[in-house]
Structures are given as structure tokens and as C-alpha cells.
């Protein structure tokens, strides 16, 4: 059995979305076992209203909840009986548990994972790697998207290696095309950090580095993984998501502005539904924290059941694909270059 913990009191729609997402994931994988952390009475009452494979789900009681107003260091120190910290400690202490999914506080999750769970051998800093849909029907990963605001060139190389293994393992992308986020596509573009990282990426074995990428090409389908510092990556992801949502709002307002547009929209209803599904982040899961010694997946704070289900699927595929050992083996090939 692949055991995965779900923090049921992290996220805007908890615990219902977390529970429903977990049940949906159990139906997808016969060898999946889910552990729910949170208030036992609440979770039992919710499960009593649902049909689920009782033999593959259990509850671990947690009396506290970490919210976004808690300072990460205070949260992991003072709220040890929270649903998130209970999950993190179980992940660390129980070798049979493969991974953790949480839609709770990002800061507390990252801090807890680094302090309590630790890193894979050779990893300088773990990084977040969310995915977004591309215009050709694929996905593109962004690594890092917020875990490391300040980075060094060797960290960007590690993000590229770890992200490539992740894209291949979870999404089946063969020889992922890796790009470095920059202000231009020419090799000499960017500051010292980007220029030094460019050279390292060129020299890295088994890495399909295709050069620099400008932000406007993120969803073009020309790239499978974009490497960047956490500050730039976070801005890139949120700007892209926000622009897509605002364009959908503008389209909807325009359609309802005139009767003739409404009539035309009736004939394009299926197309609009497909477009909405294509741009809905709920269908793409969460942001994996690559580089920790065990699998950690951070769901969006507003994740609904579908997003939680996808997060669990990401964790499941990372474990069955043995992503941790693969990362350690690949990083060991050039660890003597890193500082």
C-alpha cells in the first residue's frame, strides 16, 4: 500500500474538500491508503455521510489548526497538535508513510518539512514546482515558485535536474525541454546570476537545456520546465493565473453585454466550458516541494475536492516513480562542483 497523509484542516474549503478529494483518489488507485489528520469528531461525522472504502482510510486526531496568520516558526513550535504538524511528524517518523498533502499555510509547511522531515542527500534547497497548462495541450513546470527568494547558480541547476525528473516521472515527459527564465533569449542576457546559471545548465549531463525563455512564452508549449528563483517564479505563476482569470471575466461580461452575443454564445457553450476547464488550476493539482526526503505536495489555499484529488495523485506518482532516489543519484554526478 502507498500511504499518504492528508492535512484535513488546511485550506479555505476544509475539511469537506479534503475528505472528498481523498475519497476520489482512493477510487482511482487500489493500492492507495489515506490517513486524515484533524479533529476526529468532525472527520468521523463527515465520513459517516459519505461512501468510501473504509479499509483504506483512517483518522488521526489533531486538536489544533495552523492558519495563515501564524508565524511559521511559532506554528511548528507552539502548535504541535495541529493537523499539519501531526502530519509532518508522522511523515518523518513512520517509514511506511510515503507523502503528505496540505492546502494549509505555505510558510508553516515549508518550514516544518525542512526542519522536521529534511532534505534528500545532495540537495541544497528544496523548491516548489507547480504546473500550468500549455497551448498545445501539455503542461509546463515552474521551479522554483516561492520556496527560495534568493538563489545561487548551483541551486538553479539543481532545480533544473529535480524538476526534469519530476516532469518525466509524474507527467511522462521524455527528455523535458528546460529553459531559464530571463529578460531575453540570447545567451548573454540577464544579470550575473542568470549568466552563470546559463553556463552551468549547458554543462549539466542528461539535461535537455534549450536556453533562455521570456515570460510571455510560458504557455507556448515550447518548454516543459522553466527554472527561476522563487521570487520571479511566484510572480510569473500568479501573473499568468491572474491574467487568465481576468480575461475569462472580461469575455463573460462582453458576452452578456448584447443580445446577439448571448445568442452566439449558445452555439459555443461547449467551447467555453472546455476553455474554462483548461484554465482552471483546480484540474492541475498543487505545487510539489521537490528535494525533501519524503514527498510533500502543497495545494492552493482555495483548493476544492478536485484539486485535492490531483494533489494526492501527484504524491502517489512521485512515490511509485521513486523520484527521491533518482534525484539523489543524478545530483551526485556533479555535487563536487557545487558550493
Order of adjacent strands in the largest pleated sheet? 3-2-1-4-12-11-5
Q: What CATH architecture label of the largest domain applies?
A: 3-Layer(aba) Sandwich
Our count of domains comes out at: 2
Largest sheet: 7 strands, mixed
What is the rounded Rg? 21 Å
How far do the termini sit from each other? Answer: 39 Å
Shape: globular
Number of distinct helices? 12
The CATH homologous superfamily of the largest domain: Isopropylmalate Dehydrogenase
Low-confidence stretches: none
Strand content: 15-25%
Level of helix content? 40-55%
Can you walk through the features of this model?
- This protein is α/β, with parallel strands linked by helices and 339 residues long.
- The chain has two domains: 1-123 and 291-323, Isopropylmalate Dehydrogenase, CATH 3.40.718; 125-286, Isopropylmalate Dehydrogenase (3-Layer(aba) Sandwich).
- Helices cover 45% and strands 16% of the residues.
- The chain has twelve helices and twelve strands.
- The strands form two sheets. The chain has a seven-stranded mixed beta sheet with strand order 3-2-1-4-12-11-5, with helices on both faces.
- A hairpin with a 5-residue loop joins β6 (131-133) and β7.
- α4 packs parallel to α5 (106-117).
- The longest helix is centred in the C-terminal third of the chain and has 26 residues, at 230-255.
- It is globular.
- The chain starts with a strand and ends in an 8-residue tail after the last helix.
Amino acid at each position: 500500500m502507498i500511504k499518504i497523509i492528508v492535512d484535513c484542516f488546511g485550506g479555505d474549503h476544509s475539511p469537506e474538500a479534503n475528505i472528498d478529494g481523498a475519497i476520489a483518489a482512493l477510487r482511482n488507485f487500489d493500492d492507495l491508503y489515506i490517513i486524515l489528520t484533524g479533529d476526529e469528531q468532525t472527520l468521523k461525522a463527515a465520513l459517516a455521510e459519505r461512501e468510501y472504502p473504509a479499509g483504506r482510510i483512517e483518522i488521526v486526531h489533531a486538536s489544533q489548526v495552523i492558519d495563515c496568520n501564524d508565524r511559521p516558526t511559532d506554528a511548528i513550535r507552539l502548535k504541535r497538535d495541529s493537523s499539519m504538524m501531526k502530519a509532518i511528524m508522522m511523515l518523518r517518523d513512520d517509514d511506511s508513510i510515503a507523502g503528505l498533502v496540505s492546502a494549509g499555510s505555505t510558510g508553516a509547511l515549508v518550514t516544518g518539512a525542512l526542519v522536521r522531515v529534511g532534505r534528500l542527500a545532495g540537495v541544497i534547497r528544496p523548491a516548489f514546482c507547480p504546473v500550468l497548462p500549455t497551448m498545445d495541450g501539455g503542461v509546463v513546470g515552474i521551479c522554483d515558485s516561492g520556496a527560495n527568494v534568493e538563489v545561487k547558480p548551483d541551486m538553479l541547476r539543481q532545480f533544473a535536474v529535480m524538476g526534469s525528473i519530476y516532469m518525466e516521472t509524474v507527467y511522462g515527459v521524455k527528455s523535458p525541454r528546460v529553459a531559464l527564465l530571463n529578460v531575453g533569449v540570447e545567451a548573454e542576457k540577464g544579470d550575473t546570476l542568470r549568466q552563470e546559471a546559463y553556463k552551468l545548465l549547458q554543462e549539466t549531463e542528461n539535461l535537455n537545456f534549450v536556453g533562455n525563455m521570456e515570460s510571455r512564452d510560458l504557455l507556448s508549449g515550447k518548454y516543459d520546465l522553466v527554472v527561476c528563483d522563487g521570487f520571479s517564479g511566484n510572480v510569473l505563476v500568479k501573473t499568468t493565473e491572474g491574467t487568465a482569470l481576468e480575461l475569462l471575466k472580461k469575455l463573460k461580461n462582453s458576452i452578456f453585454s448584447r443580445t446577439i452575443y448571448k445568442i452566439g454564445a449558445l452555439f459555443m457553450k461547449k467551447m467555453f466550458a472546455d476553455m474554462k476547464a483548461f484554465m482552471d488550476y483546480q484540474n492541475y493539482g498543487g505545487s510539489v516541494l521537490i528535494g525533501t526526503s519524503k514527498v510533500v505536495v502543497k495545494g492552493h489555499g482555495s483548493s476544492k475536492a478536485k484539486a485535492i484529488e490531483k494533489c494526492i495523485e501527484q504524491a502517489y506518482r512521485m512515490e511509485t516513480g521513486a523520484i527521491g532516489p533518482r534525484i539523489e543519484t543524478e545530483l551526485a554526478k556533479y555535487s563536487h562542483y557545487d558550493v
